[in-house]
Every structure is written in C-alpha cells, then in structure tokens.
Amino acid sequence: MCGIIAYAGEKNPLEVLINGLERLEYRGYDSAGISVLKEDDIYTVKAAGKVSSLAQRIDDDSQLADTSQLHCGIAHTRWATHGGPTENNAHPHLGQNSRIALVHNGIIENYQELKNDLLAQGHVFKSETDTEILAHLIEAHYEKDLKKAVSEALAKVEGAYGIAVISKDEPDTIITARFGSPIVIGLCKDEVIIASDINAIVQHTDRVVYLNDGDLAIVNKSGISFHDLSLKSVQRNEEKITHTAEEAQKGGYSTFMMKEIHDQPRAVRNSVRGHLDFENATTSLGGLHMNPKELASIDRIQLFACGTSLNAALLGQYFFEDLVGIPCQVTQAADFRYRNPIIEKNTLAIALSQSGETADTLAAVHEAKRKGADLIAICNAVGSTIAREAGRGVYLHAGPEISVASTKAFTTQVSVLLQLAVLLGRTKRLDRSHAADILEAIDKLPEQIEEVLKLSDSIRTITEKYTDVHSMFFIGRGYQYPVALEGALKVKEISYIHAEGYHAAELKHGPLALLDEKVPVVAICTNKDSSQKIVSNIRECSSRKSPVIAVVSEGIETPADDSIVIPQAHPTTAPVLAAVALQLFSFHIADLRGCPIDQPKNLAKSVTVE
Ligand code: AGP
Predict the structure, then answer these.
(1) In the Cβ-directed half-sphere of 180, how many Cα atoms lie within 13 Å?
(2) Dihedral (C-alpha) 568, 580, 254, 310: value to the nearest 10 degrees?
(3) What is the phi-psi region of residue 354: left when phi exceeds 0, alpha when psi lies from -120 to 50, beta otherwise?
(4) pTM
(5) Pairing of strands 276-277, 239-240
(6) Cα angle vertex 307, ends 370, 536, to 5°?
C-alpha cells in the first residue's frame, strides 16, 4: 500500500507535498517522487528510499530553487508491489509523451493485457510498474480534456486504485478517482489537498470529503466537482475530522510505537466512554442501530480480520462463547472471502479492522453482505471504507495509530469486543452480578494499564539478555492464547526474531523439539485456576534448557527465569494487561537490536492490496 498526495493552491507545493508524504510514510517507505507543473511543463523528481532522500534531492535541485511560479503538484511514497523499490519504479509515472503525470495507490490487475495493447501501438515503458501502464493509457485517450481521458481509461481498468493526475496542458487542474483504495479531499480557503488519508490533511483543515468507490473529482481554480466514472455529477457530503494534528505526532517519544503504547490508558478510556451502564449491568453501543429484540435474536457470530485484528477477534470468540453462549467462528479475512462461508439466519457478521482499509477484510465485508448477513464493523479510522460499507458498528476512538506495529488498536478492539459480549450476553445468559464484575473490571483498565507501563524499564532489563536469539516462543492458555499469538506477531514485526505463538498444551505435539538454551519461551499466566497447567508447561520448557520469561499476575508464583508481574485483573481484562507488557517486551528487544521500529522492513500500516 502506498501514500498519495496532491495540492493546488498558493502555498509552495513542494513544501506541502513533502510534509504530507512524511505524514503518509507509514503507508509505504521504499521510494518516493513528486511532479509539479512548472512553466507549462511537468517537472519530476524521484528517489529510492525514504521521503527524506527525495526532500534532499529537491533541496539540491537548482531547477526548483525558485518556487514562486509553482502552484500545483502530486506526490507519492511507495510500498512496492510491481517492480523493486527503485528510482525508476517510483511514482509519479508519465505518459508516452510526458503530457500527463500520475500517482497511484492500489494494483491494476489487468495491466499486462493493457500493456500488450499499448506496446502494439508503439508505446515504450521505463518501469516495471502497473501504474505506468495507466499513465500511458490516460495519455492515449488525452485530447486536451483530462477528466474525459481519465474517465475513458479507467473504464478499461480492473483492480484497485486511488489516483491523482495532472497534465501540462491544464495547469492547476487535478483529477482524482478511487476504486478500492482510499481518497480524502481536504477543503481549505483557496487551496485543496487530496490524500490517501486524513493524517496528511489534518494540519491544514478539519473539513473533508471522502470519495466512494467509483467516484471521480475534478479540482481546479473554480473549485471542486464530484462525478461518477462516466462523469455524471454526484453529491458528496463534507465531514469533520475528529482528531488533531498533534495527535498524529510523536509527542516527545522516540517512536510512534512507544507513544501509542503509552497512549493506551487514554485510548481504552475513550473506547469505553458513555458505554458502561452500571444501573442495568450492561453496555450501550449506539452505533449498532439494533434494538433489544434484534440483539436478542442473534444466535451466531462470524468474525473476520487480518493480522493483529485477527488476534483480537480470536479473543472475542472466547468472550462471545463464554459470556453470550452462542457459537462464534473466527476466519482470516482472505480465507472468509474465498471459502464460501456458511451464513445462517440470525448470524451477526463482524469486520474488525484498525485502518478500515485492509483489502482482504473489505472483500470479506462484500462477501458477508452478498450472503445477507447482519453486518457491523469495528474500526478505528473514522470514515474509512469498511466503516462506511458496513454502515453501522463501533469506532475504537483510539486516535490515529501511525506505527506499523499495532498496539492501542489491539487493546481497544479487545475492550469493544468485551463490551459487545456483555451487551449480547445480557440478552441471553449473562447474569447481572457477573456482568457488573466485568463492567467494573473494564472501568479499572486504564489505571491498571498505567501500572503495567511503569514496568517498562524493568522489562527492558529482562530483554537485554535475549537480543541475540533467532527464535522465540510465546505460550498461553484460554483467553491468553490469542495474546501469545499477538506477542509473537509483535516480536516478529519489529525485531525480525522468528517468534511463534502457541496454545501452551500444543508444545508437546511438536514445537518442543525446537527448544534449547538459545530459544527463550514467554509464558503468560494470569489465571489462578489454570496457573498450575502453565507452571508444568514452564517446567517442560526449562527441562529442555529454554530460558523462560513469565508474564504473571500478582500473587501467582512460577519457576520462570524472569518474571514480568502485572496487576491482578478480571479474567476478561487480564489479556489487555498482558498484551501491553508484551508490547513493551517486543519494543525493547527491537530497540536494543537497533531496528527501525515504526517502519519495519517489508511491511506497511494497512494493506490495501490483496
Ligand atoms: C499489526 O501490527 C500489523 N500492522 C498488521 O498485522 C495489521 O494488524 C493488519 O494488516 C490488519 O490491519 P487492520 O486492522 O488495519 O485491518
């Protein structure tokens, strides 16, 4: 997934575009480029690597010293899909005669077919990308009417795109369109900013318009107009951004990940605000738009998601089965999309996605809708595609999550899933006192997370022993099994140590063969009732010489080599505290190994391509 931005206005477009790319860099960071309209021509600069390399190129470029005549441009930061992260493959891409320039986020699936047609017409391509094909295709349709050329070209395209296009013959005009990849337009006085997400817009304005799939917008001196792909006018509503530019900054921390880990008490408090109904020992989640009869009629749940959200969904499965007493199935979103899922009557389908833009989860949403499921979405990004496609659900209100490694989205997803389980449970078998205990536990979570955050230094001391290992296992039972999976995912993502999460009982069915003094095991033990089981698993690992680190609740003793002692909590909320401890554990290991924590190699914040 990439980040695109475009600007038309009186400010120096180079500054606005580079600043915007820096705020979109978490979307992709292997190469970048910019094109501006300069003296009736398109002037392009590209660079492999981070946005900072591109900014340096621009600073060193004498051709761009005088910016007084520059008013319009497009720019891009890339996450390579077609062709390696090279300068040549970096965007923007130009047409055959360099009359138009294009930036693109997404994948053109029928690009080879289109390319063959253009090759037959004598086109010559400079890059290995699918995007350059689209630039040539638009220019092939170009007869001094850019909107018409874009509309005709897109009619031939299969795949996903969010694009911005300029032409040297139509100064100060930008055409943008989307299908499958996000486009937001920021409305300011006498200037317009188009971007892949609001993080590149929030410092300029809080007034935005989200494009829908199949939308095309024309931006020029006379304003903005919205159309469908056949250029028929459509109405699009202005919306307000709910978070501040500051929230999208590091706030004095060295990384976004550490800032977001420490943001969790506030984020969890926000994910609960106004939802806990102590008087009736239940919760209220207004965004569901379901009356008590509809809630009570749900007798099956299908959850689908990817990555960290999938781990949160697995924990949700425990909550729904234990507290509501109805069957709940969790499926990796791409698998849900292609496995022909059984959607029975009274099934509630839940899409879980921090960004609300993950392509596989979006496709699973379409599949669930096609099969007539009652669908809700639980998302963090307000106004995101999945949230709007579902039309109802719950926002996490965790604030922007910039670091690629998801942290506060996980803990707020667990918080919201637990609140939903209480709401549904109280329409079925969850009694008042049990529900009241859980509400109290949820209400105590922010302060308990504060307690875990105070362990950061002592956790760093423990990790100092394990910075050179190549493999690591995470084990847990019951509610802590998905947390073990999440801990392993965090360590994999940011420290590049090969880590696996397992249900603790699964070790002796194979993984135990890999244990020795060089393979540490992290064991999560927060439930007094099952603690003896985990203690024997710890002994199993120690007897194979594996060093064991236990994440353990106060009052539980284990024979581990190192212990991270977290506050005692209700079984349903203890997973959140253990997850925060493991986030700190993975952060410190990665930091001690000198890894680029916020932008791990080969990854991107949300994956908008299949
Ligand atoms: C998690 O740290 C990763 N960034 C990744 O696994 C992520 O959870 C996954 O891509 C799903 O993203 P989403 O929640 O935005 O849909």
Answers:
(1) 23
(2) -170
(3) alpha
(4) 0.82
(5) unpaired
(6) 125
Q: How many whole angstroms from its chain centre is CA 456?
A: 25
Six token digits for residue 74: 């497009």
Distance 354 CA to ligand 1 centre (A): 7
Tell me if residue 2 is catalytic. yes
**CA nearest 59: which of 96, 12, 105, 104?**
12
Quick check: 398 and 380 in contact, CB under 8 A? yes
Q: Which two tokens stand for residue 99?
A: 């009359």
Decide if pLDDT at 424 tops 80.
yes
Q: What's the pLDDT tens digit per position in 160-200?
A: 899 999 999 998 899 999 998 899 999 988 899 999 988 89
Ligand 1 surroundings by CB, under 6 angstroms: 306-309, 353-355, 358, 361, 404-406, 493, 606-607
Task: Please tell me the distance between residue 114's alpha carbon and the centre of ligand 1 in angstroms.
Answer: 32
* E strands, 229-359, in order: 239-240, 276-277, 282-283, 300-305, 328-332, 347-353
**Count of beta carbons in the 10 Å neighbourhood of residue 74:** 30
Q: What is the rounded distance in angstroms from the CA atom of residue 1 to the CA atom of residue 505?
A: 38
Three-state secondary structure of 55-91: HHHHHHCHHHCCCCCCCEEEEEEECCCCCCCCCCCCC
Please confirm, yes or no, whether 518 is among the known catalytic residues.
no
Number of Cβ within 10 Å of residue 24's Cβ equals 27
**N-terminal to C-terminal alpha carbon distance within the chain:** 10
Residue position matching structure tokens 């952060």:
587
List the structure tokens of 490: 């965090």
